[in-house]
Amino acid sequence: MATQKTRETSACVQSFLHSVGNRTRREDSLVMLDLMRDATGEEARMWGSSIVGFGSYHYVYESGREGDAMLTGFSPRKQNLAIYIMPGFSAHGSLLEKLGKHKTGKSCLYVNTLADIDMKVLKTLVQRSVRHMRKKYG
After folding, report:
1. Residues spanned by the domain of 108
2. Over its length of 138 residues, how does the chain's per-residue pLDDT go in tens digits?
3. List of residues 6+ apart from 43 with CB closer than 8 A
4. CA 67 to CA 58: how far, in whole Å?
5. What is the pLDDT of residue 3?
6. What is the biggest distance separating any 2 CA atoms in the chain, rounded to whole angstroms?
7. Are strands 108-111 and 44-47 parallel, antiparallel or unpaired?
8. Is residue 105 part of a domain?
9. Model pTM?
10. C-alpha of 81 from chain center
């Protein structure tokens, strides 16, 4: 069976965030660190080499494949800030309309800078996502 690529590591979150070269992305990441810690009640952990995650859950697919993943998190990428909303966005249309300038993938919310979005809406989105994941996975 294939090994899970993105796993929790013992790397230092603060060291990683302070090493982000783009000043705006670094400052936004420090804001996200506080927002997600507050929204989840969890401490940040590194997942892989470039994702800051909060909490975890264990999943098992019908195929028998299983693993652990973060409840939510973010990654300061070169092009944007990726914010992980694990259950996806199908139940969050009204919030996304109020969020501001963003793009979405399956479980990723992409923003260029936090100045482009409404932080209260983002916090609500993260809180609802985490609540959903905790209800589904215990």
Report:
1. 13-129
2. 455 678 899 999 999 999 999 999 999 999 999 999 999 999 999 999 999 999 998 888 888 888 889 999 999 999 999 999 999 998 888 999 999 999 999 999 999 999 999 999 999 999 999 999 999 988
3. 37, 54
4. 6
5. 58
6. 43
7. unpaired
8. yes
9. 0.92
10. 10
Q: In what order do the strands lie in the sheet with 72-76?
A: 44-47, 51-54, 72-76, 81-85, 108-111, 103-104
8 bridge partner residues: 47
Query: Are 6 and 51 in contact, with CB atoms under 8 Å apart?
Result: yes
CA–CA gap between residue 132 and residue 126 (Å, rounded): 10
Query: Is residue 16 a contact partner of residue 100, using CB atoms and an 8 Å limit?
Result: no
8 assigned to some structural domain = no
Residue 110: CATH number of its domain? 3.90.1150.200
Residues in the chain: 138
Token pair, residue 34, equals: 């506080």
How many structural domains comprise the chain?
1
Element (H, E) at 54: strand 51-54
